[in-house]
Amino acid sequence: MADRSLRGMRLGSQSLQSEEGVEFSPRKKVTYRTAEGTTFEVTFAAEADVPETWESPKTGQEGRLVDEAGELVQSETAEAKAPRTHWDMLLERRTRAELEELLQERLEYLRARKGQHKIGA
User: Fold this and answer.
1) 13 — pLDDT class (breaks 50, 70, 90)
2) Is 54 in contact with 63 (CB distance < 8 Å)?
3) For the residues of 52-118, what is the DSSP string, one character each?
4) Is 27 helix (H, G, I), strand (E, B) or coil?
């Protein structure tokens, strides 16, 4: 008998919980504009840092943040520092001459090891 009462219900399509007594966190809507000129809104938590760019959920194009006056928000970030490479970090700790010496030692070690495997095979 219980099976019959469930036949008319669509499982997974509706929540059985009520939103009564639920307090939502404060939110804000911001607008983004794509290069084509189309706009879309994204909802963020009120205290969230809003990114300057966001991908449109409909078109997948990147949109830039628009202020209340409808103007594109200018980037506040100053010229970003180039990311440090592994080579840059090595040069901070050792001189080029030291690195060349280490390279030679490692190459000699690897060549000697390779030669040992050929002899034993």
Assistant:
1) low
2) yes
3) SEEE-TTT--EEEEE-TTSPBPPP---PPPPPPPHHHHHHHHS-HHHHHHHHHHHHHHHHHHHHHHH
4) strand
Superfamily of domain covering 25-74: RNA polymerase-binding protein A (2.20.28.270)
Q: Rounded CA gap, 71 and 67, in Å? A: 6
State CA 7 to chain mean position distance. Answer: 44
**Model confidence pLDDT, tens digit, residues 65-107:** 998 888 888 876 656 678 889 989 999 999 999 999 999 999 9
Maximal CA-CA distance, the chain: 86
Nearest alpha carbon to residue 65 among 56, 57, 73 = 73
